[in-house]
Protein backbone atom coordinates (compact mmCIF):
# COMPACT_ATOMS: atom_id res chain seq x y z
CA UNK A 1 0.00 0.00 0.00
CA UNK A 2 1.28 3.49 -0.83
CA UNK A 3 0.11 7.11 -0.75
CA UNK A 4 0.19 9.52 -3.69
CA UNK A 5 -0.83 13.16 -3.90
CA UNK A 6 -3.80 13.87 -6.14
CA UNK A 7 -6.18 16.68 -7.05
CA UNK A 8 -9.78 15.67 -6.30
CA UNK A 9 -13.02 17.29 -7.50
CA UNK A 10 -16.61 16.76 -6.42
CA UNK A 11 -19.81 18.13 -7.98
CA UNK A 12 -23.34 17.86 -6.66
CA UNK A 13 -26.66 19.04 -8.16
CA UNK A 14 -28.75 21.13 -5.82
CA UNK A 15 -32.23 19.72 -5.02
CA UNK A 16 -31.64 16.65 -7.16
CA UNK A 17 -33.62 14.23 -4.97
CA UNK A 18 -36.74 16.41 -5.17
CA UNK A 19 -37.03 15.87 -8.96
CA UNK A 20 -38.96 12.99 -10.47
CA UNK A 21 -36.90 10.17 -11.99
CA UNK A 22 -37.54 11.33 -15.55
CA UNK A 23 -36.13 14.77 -14.71
CA UNK A 24 -33.19 13.25 -12.86
CA UNK A 25 -32.11 11.33 -15.96
CA UNK A 26 -32.29 14.52 -18.05
CA UNK A 27 -30.20 16.40 -15.46
CA UNK A 28 -27.61 13.63 -15.28
CA UNK A 29 -27.25 13.58 -19.07
CA UNK A 30 -26.98 17.36 -19.29
CA UNK A 31 -24.44 17.62 -16.47
CA UNK A 32 -22.24 14.87 -17.92
CA UNK A 33 -22.14 16.67 -21.27
CA UNK A 34 -21.36 20.02 -19.69
CA UNK A 35 -18.56 18.59 -17.55
CA UNK A 36 -17.02 17.05 -20.67
CA UNK A 37 -17.25 20.29 -22.64
CA UNK A 38 -15.97 22.46 -19.80
CA UNK A 39 -13.00 20.16 -19.27
CA UNK A 40 -12.07 20.15 -22.97
CA UNK A 41 -12.36 23.93 -23.17
CA UNK A 42 -10.05 24.23 -20.17
CA UNK A 43 -7.45 21.97 -21.80
CA UNK A 44 -8.39 18.94 -19.68
CA UNK A 45 -9.77 15.50 -20.48
CA UNK A 46 -12.28 13.72 -18.27
CA UNK A 47 -11.25 10.49 -19.94
CA UNK A 48 -8.11 10.65 -17.80
CA UNK A 49 -10.04 11.21 -14.57
CA UNK A 50 -10.94 8.34 -12.26
CA UNK A 51 -14.60 9.10 -11.69
CA UNK A 52 -17.02 7.81 -9.09
CA UNK A 53 -20.51 8.84 -10.25
CA UNK A 54 -23.32 9.39 -7.80
CA UNK A 55 -26.97 9.94 -8.61
CA UNK A 56 -26.66 13.69 -8.21
CA UNK A 57 -23.06 14.25 -9.28
CA UNK A 58 -19.63 12.69 -9.13
CA UNK A 59 -16.29 12.60 -7.34
CA UNK A 60 -13.16 12.43 -9.50
CA UNK A 61 -9.47 11.81 -8.87
CA UNK A 62 -7.38 13.68 -11.45
CA UNK A 63 -4.00 12.69 -12.95
CA UNK A 64 -0.80 13.52 -11.07
CA UNK A 65 0.34 16.14 -13.60
CA UNK A 66 -2.93 18.08 -13.83
CA UNK A 67 -2.66 21.86 -14.17
CA UNK A 68 -4.08 23.34 -10.95
CA UNK A 69 -4.89 26.65 -12.62
CA UNK A 70 -6.82 24.95 -15.40
CA UNK A 71 -9.06 23.16 -12.90
CA UNK A 72 -9.49 25.85 -10.25
CA UNK A 73 -10.29 28.67 -12.67
CA UNK A 74 -10.68 27.75 -16.36
CA UNK A 75 -12.76 24.64 -15.73
CA UNK A 76 -15.07 26.53 -13.36
CA UNK A 77 -15.43 29.45 -15.79
CA UNK A 78 -16.27 27.15 -18.70
CA UNK A 79 -18.67 25.14 -16.55
CA UNK A 80 -20.48 28.30 -15.45
CA UNK A 81 -20.84 29.38 -19.10
CA UNK A 82 -22.48 26.09 -20.02
CA UNK A 83 -24.73 26.09 -16.97
CA UNK A 84 -25.85 29.61 -17.89
CA UNK A 85 -26.79 28.52 -21.41
CA UNK A 86 -28.54 25.38 -20.16
CA UNK A 87 -30.53 27.24 -17.51
CA UNK A 88 -31.52 30.01 -19.92
CA UNK A 89 -32.74 27.48 -22.45
CA UNK A 90 -34.75 25.22 -20.12
CA UNK A 91 -37.71 25.63 -17.81
CA UNK A 92 -37.06 25.97 -14.05
CA UNK A 93 -37.74 22.26 -13.47
CA UNK A 94 -34.68 21.38 -15.57
CA UNK A 95 -32.39 24.00 -14.05
CA UNK A 96 -28.99 22.74 -12.86
CA UNK A 97 -27.21 24.49 -9.98
CA UNK A 98 -24.05 22.96 -8.62
CA UNK A 99 -21.93 22.76 -5.53
CA UNK A 100 -18.32 22.17 -6.58
CA UNK A 101 -15.60 21.17 -4.11
CA UNK A 102 -11.85 20.89 -4.79
CA UNK A 103 -8.96 19.67 -2.67
CA UNK A 104 -5.41 18.37 -3.04
CA UNK A 105 -4.05 15.74 -0.67
CA UNK A 106 -2.95 12.11 -0.54
CA UNK A 107 -4.91 9.04 -1.56
CA UNK A 108 -4.04 5.37 -1.61
CA UNK A 109 -3.30 3.73 -4.90
CA UNK A 110 -6.49 2.17 -6.29
CA UNK A 111 -7.72 -0.89 -4.46
CA UNK A 112 -10.63 -3.24 -5.21
CA UNK A 113 -13.16 -0.41 -4.78
CA UNK A 114 -11.01 2.44 -6.07
CA UNK A 115 -9.11 5.20 -4.29
CA UNK A 116 -9.28 5.87 -0.55
CA UNK A 117 -7.56 8.27 1.82
CA UNK A 118 -7.70 11.75 3.38
CA UNK A 119 -8.17 13.65 0.10
CA UNK A 120 -11.54 12.06 -0.56
CA UNK A 121 -12.69 12.39 3.04
CA UNK A 122 -11.95 16.13 3.13
CA UNK A 123 -13.50 16.61 -0.31
CA UNK A 124 -16.78 15.05 0.79
CA UNK A 125 -16.87 17.21 3.92
CA UNK A 126 -16.40 20.35 1.83
CA UNK A 127 -18.98 19.30 -0.76
CA UNK A 128 -21.65 18.71 1.89
CA UNK A 129 -20.73 21.66 4.12
CA UNK A 130 -23.11 24.40 5.21
CA UNK A 131 -20.97 27.28 3.88
CA UNK A 132 -21.16 26.12 0.26
CA UNK A 133 -24.86 25.26 0.58
CA UNK A 134 -25.57 28.65 2.14
CA UNK A 135 -23.56 30.44 -0.56
CA UNK A 136 -25.66 28.86 -3.31
CA UNK A 137 -28.89 29.62 -1.46
CA UNK A 138 -27.84 33.26 -0.93
CA UNK A 139 -27.20 33.76 -4.68
CA UNK A 140 -30.36 32.46 -6.42
CA UNK A 141 -29.19 33.68 -9.83
CA UNK A 142 -25.82 31.90 -9.57
CA UNK A 143 -25.31 28.60 -11.35
CA UNK A 144 -22.65 27.22 -9.04
CA UNK A 145 -20.72 27.77 -5.83
CA UNK A 146 -17.11 26.59 -5.62
CA UNK A 147 -15.40 25.70 -2.35
CA UNK A 148 -11.70 24.86 -2.18
CA UNK A 149 -9.56 23.67 0.70
CA UNK A 150 -6.95 25.78 2.45
CA UNK A 151 -4.12 23.66 1.03
CA UNK A 152 -5.37 24.11 -2.53
CA UNK A 153 -5.90 27.83 -1.97
CA UNK A 154 -2.26 28.17 -0.93
CA UNK A 155 -0.98 26.17 -3.90
CA UNK A 156 -3.18 27.58 -6.67
CA UNK A 157 -4.53 30.99 -5.61
CA UNK A 158 -1.80 32.69 -3.58
CA UNK A 159 0.74 32.64 -6.46
CA UNK A 160 -1.73 34.89 -8.36
CA UNK A 161 -1.26 33.19 -11.72
CA UNK A 162 -3.76 32.44 -14.45
CA UNK A 163 -6.12 35.23 -13.38
CA UNK A 164 -6.57 33.85 -9.86
CA UNK A 165 -6.48 36.40 -7.04
CA UNK A 166 -7.08 36.00 -3.29
CA UNK A 167 -9.72 38.77 -3.33
CA UNK A 168 -11.93 36.60 -5.53
CA UNK A 169 -12.42 34.09 -2.70
CA UNK A 170 -14.17 34.44 0.65
CA UNK A 171 -12.72 32.65 3.64
CA UNK A 172 -15.15 30.38 5.54
CA UNK A 173 -14.95 27.89 8.36
CA UNK A 174 -16.22 24.33 7.98
CA UNK A 175 -17.00 22.86 11.39
CA UNK A 176 -18.44 19.38 11.76
CA UNK A 177 -18.05 18.50 15.47
CA UNK A 178 -19.73 15.13 15.09
CA UNK A 179 -17.05 14.11 12.59
CA UNK A 180 -14.25 15.98 14.38
CA UNK A 181 -13.70 18.06 11.26
CA UNK A 182 -12.64 21.70 11.57
CA UNK A 183 -11.07 23.30 8.50
CA UNK A 184 -10.64 26.68 6.84
CA UNK A 185 -11.88 26.80 3.25
CA UNK A 186 -12.47 29.40 0.52
CA UNK A 187 -15.61 30.16 -1.48
CA UNK A 188 -16.06 31.55 -4.96
CA UNK A 189 -19.46 32.28 -6.51
CA UNK A 190 -19.38 33.59 -10.11
CA UNK A 191 -20.93 37.04 -10.17
CA UNK A 192 -20.55 37.56 -6.43
CA UNK A 193 -17.00 38.86 -6.82
CA UNK A 194 -14.97 39.87 -9.90
CA UNK A 195 -14.02 36.76 -11.82
CA UNK A 196 -11.33 36.61 -14.50
CA UNK A 197 -12.06 35.65 -18.04
CA UNK A 198 -11.14 32.10 -18.85
CA UNK A 199 -7.78 31.82 -20.54
CA UNK A 200 -7.56 29.81 -23.70
CA UNK A 201 -4.68 27.39 -24.04
CA UNK A 202 -2.00 28.36 -26.56
CA UNK A 203 -1.56 26.74 -29.91
CA UNK A 204 -4.94 27.43 -31.52
CA UNK A 205 -4.78 26.96 -35.28
CA UNK A 206 -5.32 30.17 -37.20
CA UNK A 207 -5.89 28.90 -40.73
CA UNK A 208 -9.30 29.38 -42.28
CA UNK A 209 -9.80 25.67 -42.89
CA UNK A 210 -10.56 25.21 -39.20
CA UNK A 211 -13.25 27.93 -39.14
CA UNK A 212 -13.47 27.50 -35.40
CA UNK A 213 -10.32 26.47 -33.57
CA UNK A 214 -10.96 22.97 -32.20
CA UNK A 215 -11.11 22.39 -28.49
CA UNK A 216 -7.65 21.86 -26.94
CA UNK A 217 -6.48 18.35 -27.66
CA UNK A 218 -9.72 17.38 -29.40
CA UNK A 219 -9.25 15.15 -32.46
CA UNK A 220 -11.45 17.31 -34.68
CA UNK A 221 -10.66 17.47 -38.37
CA UNK A 222 -12.55 19.80 -40.65
CA UNK A 223 -14.18 17.94 -43.55
CA UNK A 224 -12.12 18.02 -46.74
CA UNK A 225 -12.98 21.16 -48.64
CA UNK A 226 -13.77 20.82 -52.29
CA UNK A 227 -12.51 23.63 -54.45
CA UNK A 228 -13.87 24.66 -57.82
CA UNK A 229 -17.29 23.28 -56.89
CA UNK A 230 -19.60 25.91 -58.25
CA UNK A 231 -23.29 25.11 -58.66
CA UNK A 232 -25.07 25.49 -61.98
CA UNK A 233 -25.90 29.16 -62.41
CA UNK A 234 -29.48 29.72 -63.56
CA UNK A 235 -30.13 33.08 -65.17
CA UNK A 236 -31.08 35.57 -62.43
CA UNK A 237 -34.65 36.87 -62.68
CA UNK A 238 -36.52 39.45 -60.66
CA UNK A 239 -39.44 37.58 -59.10
CA UNK A 240 -42.24 38.43 -56.70
CA UNK A 241 -41.30 36.91 -53.33
CA UNK A 242 -42.59 33.39 -52.90
CA UNK A 243 -44.17 33.09 -56.34
CA UNK A 244 -43.92 29.56 -57.72
CA UNK A 245 -43.36 28.70 -61.36
CA UNK A 246 -45.98 26.70 -63.23
CA UNK A 247 -43.54 23.87 -63.77
CA UNK A 248 -42.72 23.70 -60.06
CA UNK A 249 -39.07 24.53 -60.68
CA UNK A 250 -36.95 26.32 -58.13
CA UNK A 251 -37.44 30.06 -58.22
CA UNK A 252 -34.30 32.14 -58.54
CA UNK A 253 -34.48 35.31 -56.48
CA UNK A 254 -32.31 38.25 -57.38
CA UNK A 255 -30.31 39.55 -54.40
CA UNK A 256 -30.84 43.03 -53.03
CA UNK A 257 -27.91 45.34 -52.35
CA UNK A 258 -27.59 45.98 -48.59
CA UNK A 259 -27.90 49.40 -47.00
CA UNK A 260 -24.50 50.24 -45.47
CA UNK A 261 -24.54 49.58 -41.71
CA UNK A 262 -21.62 49.43 -39.29
CA UNK A 263 -21.64 45.79 -38.19
CA UNK A 264 -18.38 46.01 -36.24
CA UNK A 265 -14.85 44.89 -37.17
CA UNK A 266 -15.27 41.31 -35.98
CA UNK A 267 -18.36 40.75 -38.10
CA UNK A 268 -16.82 42.52 -41.09
CA UNK A 269 -13.76 40.30 -40.92
CA UNK A 270 -15.93 37.19 -40.70
CA UNK A 271 -17.92 38.40 -43.72
CA UNK A 272 -14.71 38.91 -45.72
CA UNK A 273 -13.69 35.34 -44.94
CA UNK A 274 -17.04 34.07 -46.23
CA UNK A 275 -16.60 35.96 -49.51
CA UNK A 276 -12.98 34.85 -49.88
CA UNK A 277 -13.93 31.20 -49.39
CA UNK A 278 -16.69 31.48 -51.99
CA UNK A 279 -14.32 33.23 -54.40
CA UNK A 280 -12.02 30.21 -54.12
CA UNK A 281 -14.93 27.84 -54.65
CA UNK A 282 -14.57 26.42 -51.11
CA UNK A 283 -18.29 26.07 -50.53
CA UNK A 284 -18.21 23.94 -47.38
CA UNK A 285 -15.77 26.29 -45.70
CA UNK A 286 -17.92 29.28 -46.63
CA UNK A 287 -20.88 27.44 -45.10
CA UNK A 288 -19.10 26.97 -41.77
CA UNK A 289 -17.83 30.55 -41.82
CA UNK A 290 -21.36 31.83 -42.45
CA UNK A 291 -22.50 30.17 -39.25
CA UNK A 292 -19.52 31.64 -37.43
CA UNK A 293 -20.36 35.14 -38.74
CA UNK A 294 -23.85 34.94 -37.26
CA UNK A 295 -22.45 33.72 -33.95
CA UNK A 296 -19.91 36.52 -33.81
CA UNK A 297 -22.65 39.06 -34.52
CA UNK A 298 -24.58 38.09 -31.37
CA UNK A 299 -21.62 37.23 -29.16
CA UNK A 300 -22.15 33.47 -29.32
CA UNK A 301 -18.96 32.47 -31.17
CA UNK A 302 -17.59 30.98 -27.95
CA UNK A 303 -20.69 28.80 -27.59
CA UNK A 304 -20.94 27.42 -31.12
CA UNK A 305 -24.72 27.64 -31.57
CA UNK A 306 -27.67 30.03 -31.32
CA UNK A 307 -30.61 30.11 -28.96
CA UNK A 308 -34.11 31.12 -30.02
CA UNK A 309 -33.67 34.42 -28.19
CA UNK A 310 -30.61 35.27 -30.36
CA UNK A 311 -32.58 35.45 -33.61
CA UNK A 312 -34.03 38.95 -33.11
CA UNK A 313 -30.49 40.26 -32.51
CA UNK A 314 -29.43 39.49 -36.10
CA UNK A 315 -29.36 42.74 -38.08
CA UNK A 316 -31.14 43.00 -41.43
CA UNK A 317 -27.93 44.34 -42.99
CA UNK A 318 -25.96 41.29 -41.87
CA UNK A 319 -28.51 38.85 -43.27
CA UNK A 320 -28.63 40.84 -46.51
CA UNK A 321 -24.85 40.82 -46.95
CA UNK A 322 -24.60 37.10 -46.32
CA UNK A 323 -27.47 36.47 -48.71
CA UNK A 324 -25.79 38.63 -51.34
CA UNK A 325 -22.55 36.65 -51.09
CA UNK A 326 -24.31 33.31 -51.55
CA UNK A 327 -26.72 34.60 -54.21
CA UNK A 328 -23.93 36.10 -56.34
CA UNK A 329 -21.95 32.88 -56.10
CA UNK A 330 -24.87 30.63 -57.05
CA UNK A 331 -26.82 32.87 -59.41
CA UNK A 332 -29.63 33.15 -56.87
CA UNK A 333 -30.03 29.42 -56.20
CA UNK A 334 -28.57 29.58 -52.66
CA UNK A 335 -28.80 32.12 -49.86
CA UNK A 336 -31.35 33.28 -47.31
CA UNK A 337 -33.71 34.82 -49.84
CA UNK A 338 -33.87 31.60 -51.86
CA UNK A 339 -34.35 29.57 -48.69
CA UNK A 340 -37.15 31.83 -47.45
CA UNK A 341 -38.95 31.47 -50.77
CA UNK A 342 -38.53 27.72 -50.55
CA UNK A 343 -40.20 27.43 -47.12
CA UNK A 344 -42.82 30.15 -47.53
CA UNK A 345 -45.64 27.67 -47.05
CA UNK A 346 -44.41 26.72 -43.59
CA UNK A 347 -45.40 28.52 -40.41
CA UNK A 348 -42.13 28.82 -38.53
CA UNK A 349 -42.39 29.42 -34.80
CA UNK A 350 -39.75 27.16 -33.24
CA UNK A 351 -37.98 23.77 -33.19
CA UNK A 352 -41.07 21.70 -33.96
CA UNK A 353 -40.97 22.85 -37.61
CA UNK A 354 -37.28 22.01 -38.03
CA UNK A 355 -37.83 18.65 -39.75
CA UNK A 356 -40.25 20.10 -42.29
CA UNK A 357 -37.82 22.91 -43.04
CA UNK A 358 -35.00 20.35 -43.44
CA UNK A 359 -36.97 18.50 -46.10
CA UNK A 360 -37.84 21.71 -47.92
CA UNK A 361 -34.19 22.75 -48.13
CA UNK A 362 -32.91 19.33 -49.23
CA UNK A 363 -31.22 18.51 -45.93
CA UNK A 364 -33.48 15.48 -45.45
CA UNK A 365 -35.20 13.22 -47.95
CA UNK A 366 -38.06 12.77 -45.48
CA UNK A 367 -38.89 14.01 -41.99
CA UNK A 368 -37.94 10.73 -40.28
CA UNK A 369 -34.50 10.49 -41.90
CA UNK A 370 -31.49 10.69 -39.59
CA UNK A 371 -29.13 13.49 -40.57
CA UNK A 372 -25.53 12.31 -41.17
CA UNK A 373 -22.41 14.11 -39.98
CA UNK A 374 -21.21 17.08 -41.99
CA UNK A 375 -18.77 15.30 -44.35
CA UNK A 376 -21.54 13.02 -45.63
CA UNK A 377 -24.29 15.63 -45.28
CA UNK A 378 -22.80 18.13 -47.77
CA UNK A 379 -22.62 15.50 -50.50
CA UNK A 380 -26.35 15.95 -51.01
CA UNK A 381 -25.95 19.67 -51.76
CA UNK A 382 -27.95 20.75 -54.78
CA UNK A 383 -28.74 24.04 -56.47
CA UNK A 384 -32.30 22.76 -56.83
CA UNK A 385 -33.07 22.85 -53.10
CA UNK A 386 -31.57 26.10 -51.76
CA UNK A 387 -29.24 23.90 -49.72
CA UNK A 388 -26.74 26.52 -48.48
CA UNK A 389 -26.15 27.98 -45.96
CA UNK A 390 -26.85 25.05 -43.62
CA UNK A 391 -25.96 26.92 -40.36
CA UNK A 392 -24.09 23.89 -39.06
CA UNK A 393 -21.00 23.89 -36.84
CA UNK A 394 -19.07 20.66 -37.57
CA UNK A 395 -16.89 21.14 -34.49
CA UNK A 396 -19.91 20.54 -32.24
CA UNK A 397 -20.46 17.15 -33.83
CA UNK A 398 -17.88 15.76 -31.42
CA UNK A 399 -20.67 15.96 -28.83
CA UNK A 400 -23.81 13.78 -28.78
CA UNK A 401 -25.96 16.91 -28.38
CA UNK A 402 -24.85 18.49 -31.69
CA UNK A 403 -28.24 18.02 -33.36
CA UNK A 404 -30.01 19.62 -30.39
CA UNK A 405 -27.77 22.66 -30.93
CA UNK A 406 -28.05 22.76 -34.72
CA UNK A 407 -31.87 22.77 -34.79
CA UNK A 408 -32.33 25.83 -32.51
CA UNK A 409 -29.61 27.61 -34.49
CA UNK A 410 -31.48 27.03 -37.74
CA UNK A 411 -34.83 27.98 -36.28
CA UNK A 412 -33.47 31.13 -34.61
CA UNK A 413 -32.28 32.33 -38.02
CA UNK A 414 -35.25 31.20 -40.09
CA UNK A 415 -37.86 32.59 -37.70
CA UNK A 416 -35.91 35.86 -37.92
CA UNK A 417 -35.93 35.65 -41.72
CA UNK A 418 -39.73 35.82 -41.71
CA UNK A 419 -39.43 39.50 -40.69
CA UNK A 420 -36.24 40.26 -42.60
CA UNK A 421 -36.53 43.32 -44.86
CA UNK A 422 -40.29 43.48 -44.37
UniProtKB/TrEMBL annotation:
<protein>
    <recommendedName>
        <fullName>GUN4-like domain-containing protein</fullName>
    </recommendedName>
</protein>
<dbReference type="Pfam" id="PF05419">
    <property type="entry name" value="GUN4"/>
</dbReference>
<dbReference type="InterPro" id="IPR008629">
    <property type="entry name" value="GUN4-like"/>
</dbReference>
<feature type="domain" description="GUN4-like">
    <location>
        <begin position="272"/>
        <end position="369"/>
    </location>
</feature>
<dbReference type="InterPro" id="IPR037215">
    <property type="entry name" value="GUN4-like_sf"/>
</dbReference>
